[in-house]
Design a protein that fits this description.
Low-confidence stretches: 167-178
Radius of gyration: 23 Å
Helix content: 55-70%
Number of domains: 1
Oligomer: single chain
Largest sheet: none
Structural class: mainly alpha
Strand content: under 5%
Length: 187
């Protein structure tokens, strides 16, 4: 995996290795199940593209608290982090999708509209555009989540097989009442 990062310029390789590759390798080496990792990755990315910046970590924390052991918390948070640039690029498509769904007015993304937003003259339009973006995300969420799960599952199966240090057999629950027999020899 480290070999893939050599092509990055401007010091992005060491940054990506420290922030993405190394944490992913730690996750894989701890022996989580590929289905749980794929679900958690899909969940982290889906919540990570929520169209209001700065809210995604809170959403992921809430999802982890609600889902508990059904999801893998480090994977949710790592994929949420990875999704940040994608989040910024999807705000406008979610906005336009929400406008399409409601048949609402098209929020102009021009410098004049930006000036109105900054001066408080377009407050109703801004709130309406936020609602449209949220609606677009809510409607797209099941499709994003399902598609990501389908794409991530085979990837995590391969990665777990390659990087997992544990055995591939299912873990046995600990036995609390075990009997130890020692053989003592007369010398």
């Amino acid at each position: 995996m480290a070999g893939m990062l050599k092509g990055f310029g401007f010091g992005l390789g060491p940054w990506a290795r420290k922030r993405i590759v190394d944490p992913l390798l730690q996750i894989l080496r701890r022996g989580a199940e590929p289905k749980q990792l794929a679900f958690s990755g899909a969940l982290g990315i889906t919540l990570g593209v929520f169209p209001i910046c700065g809210v995604t970590v809170f959403l992921c924390g809430m999802a982890i608290a609600v889902l508990g052991s059904l999801c893998h918390a480090p994977t949710v948070m790592l994929t949420n982090f990875i999704a940040t640039p994608v989040e910024l690029s999807l705000v406008i498509p979610f906005l336009r999708f929400g406008e399409f769904i409601t048949g609402g007015p098209h929020f102009p993304l021009t410098s004049d509209a930006f000036k109105k937003v900054l001066t408080g003259q377009a407050s109703r339009e801004v709130v309406q555009s936020i609602v449209h973006a949220l609606l677009g995300w809510v409607v797209a969420t099941p499709f994003i989540m399902g598609t990501l799960y389908i794409l991530l599952l085979p990837c995590f199966k391969i990665l777990v097989r390659k990087f997992s240090t544990g055995s591939s057999s299912p873990k046995k629950p600990p036995h609390f009442h075990t009997e130890v027999r020692l053989k003592v020899r007369d010398v």
